[in-house]
Amino acid sequence: MENSNQYIQQRVERLTQQDLNRKPNKWIAQMPQCNCAERVLDIACGLACESIAWARLGKKVTAIDFNLDLLIAAKKLVTSQGLKVDFVVADATRMPFRDSAFEIAFSDALFEHVPNWQNIATEASRVLSQNGVFFVRTINRHNPINPEINHCHLYPWLPQSVKAPILRWVMRNKPAWVNYTKFPAINWFTHRGLARFLRELGFETFEIFDLVRKESTSQKRRSLFFLMQLLKKFPILRYSVYPLMPMVQILAVKTCVQEQVVTKAAEEPAYAK
Q1: What is the pLDDT of residue 258?
Q2: What is the residue extent of each domain of the chain?
Q3: What is the pLDDT of residues 9-38, one digit of tens each?
C-alpha cells in the first residue's frame, strides 16, 4: 500500500500546467473520423490528462484504470478543470462495455505492463465501431535506452533468463527505479510486429511516418520534412531510425470484424519479454 501511495503521489507531483493544457493526440485528431466522433475511450487513463484534452473538445469521454486511488486523483483534476469525464474501475483485458460503444480509443504506456496485452487489443477492437480509431503508444524494443527501469539501459536486449532476476532484485531492493509501481514493464515491442498483430485483428495500421503532413509540421522541423517523405516512401529505411525512437506508436483503423483471431507466427515478434 505504501508503494501504491508513493506511486500516485509521485505522479501528482510531476504534473505540470502544460500537462493539463495539452491538446488531444495530434495523430488521432488529424483523422477524418475525429470530426464526427462523439465517444472516446481512454484505456489506463492514469491522471486523465489526455481525457481532459478530449473533453475540452466536447467529446463524451470514458476513462478506465485498474487503480481506484489513481482514478480518484484523476477525477479531482478533471473537476478542477470544470469538465466531465466518466471514470470506471476496469480491467483493460475485460472491458465492461458493449460492442461498438466508441469511435476513438487509445492506450498510452500500458501494453508493456500487461502479460496478456493481446487481450487489450482484442477488447479495443470489440468496443470500437466500424472505422473507429485505436492509437497505441508503448515501449520500443529497438531502442537501447530503458525509460521503464532507471539505471538499467540495454535491459530490453537481454534474454529473459537475465532480465527476470534483475527485475526481481529491483522490485525488492530499488522500488524507486520503477517509480514505485507494482506492475513494471515486462514487454518490449517492435513497430512491425505490433502493427502485424493489429492487422490480424482487422485493423488497418499506420506508423507516424505514414501520418506526418507538411502543413501540420512546425517551421522548425519543416526543413526535415523531406526525410519523412523518404521514410514514408521507402519503409525499409525506417529500420535506420527505429533505434532512436523511445516509443512504438501505431494508429489503427478498424476496417473489418473477425469473430475469432488466430495469431500467426511471425519472423519478427510483436514483443520480446
Answers
A1: 53
A2: 2-148+181-211+243-260
A3: 888 888 888 988 999 999 999 999 999 999
Maximum Cα interatomic distance, the chain, rounded to a whole number of Å: 51
| pTM recorded for the entire structure | 0.88
Classify burial at 236, counting beta carbons within 10 Å of its beta carbon; exposed 0-12, middle 13-18, buried 19 or more: exposed
Reported as a single tens digit per residue, the pLDDT across 240-255 is 999 999 999 999 999 9
Superfamily of domain 2-148+181-211+243-260: Vaccinia Virus protein VP39 (3.40.50.150)
Distances (CA, A) of 191 to 114, 142, 183, 241: 18, 9, 23, 11
